[in-house]
Predict the 3D structure of the following.
Amino acid sequence: MSHAIQERPVSLAPRRGSLSHARLPRWTPAAVAVGSIAGGIGIGLAAGWHSKVQWGLIAALLFVLVTFAVTTKVEGSRQAKDRVATSLVWVCFVLAVVPLLSLAWVTVSKGLDVLDGYFLTHSMNGVLDAEAGGGVYHALLGTIEQVGIATLIAAPIGLLTAVYLVEYGGGKLAQAVTFFVDVMTGIPSIVAGLFVLATWNLILGFGPSGFAGAMALAILMMPVVVRSTEEMLKLVPNELREASLALGIPKWRTILKVVLPTAIGGITTGVMLAVARITGETAPVLLLVFGTKLINPNPFEGAQSSLPLYVYEQYAVGTDAAVARAWAAALVLIAFVMILNLVARGIARWKAPKTAR
């Protein structure tokens, strides 16, 4: 060939119509957030608003608007919409986390003033509500027994109900069970307490006890366990069931050895959500357990106390010593639920099927 091939120089600069476009630096969201916070505080002070909640809402609005304006100017409207959606997610996350952190901080800061070993190992026996001293041992013992009994009642029933709905149910009975479970999810706690009061106490003639309160708590706990367990069982792939049944394993054994271990993590989380809900209930305990200053280790006879009821009673007194005990008991209640969650997660991880990495 007589003509030599001439190579053209390759340009690395973005050409018109290419996919390359200007991008904002990675530190832009942080800078916009800092500027929005400063702007929210400045606007709030200039307007004479002293509420930090108002400052935060203004800062959140400025963050979204400035992000949209800056991104539209540099990256275009399409990318701006994406960044605005991301900004809204972050704003919602902050709005959800800030109240939780504030609540935890206030409870810890005020509860630690009274919380010590003496407070955890003594009751209010012989101590006037207006005086300093006393402890929460009798209420903590009552909460452990009542929540434990309620869990022993509600968890197996809820688990078996969910297994029936997912693995066996399909007719009108399953539809009726699902309907009533959904209805029970919205039952107020006072209604559950009144039901047990009318049947267990008034009709059958039993007196106040921790077991009566535990039955009301179990009624509140069952629908949460059923719905959460049902959703977790639906997430188990059908291929696992089919593989087990193809090997000639009975269906009940497949459920016991394959389905439940696969979903044990989610099931445990659902049970703990139900436990967290009933642990803070006061109305059923007030109706059925009555409350007492004495230590009653027998949940089947005599009045008991519980942490939510103890917090209510102490805060209702109104004195500085009583309010301090109420904050300390609230901190113990939060720690109790947290410990239960950690233990449940540990058990779920221990029992979960091992997967190769």
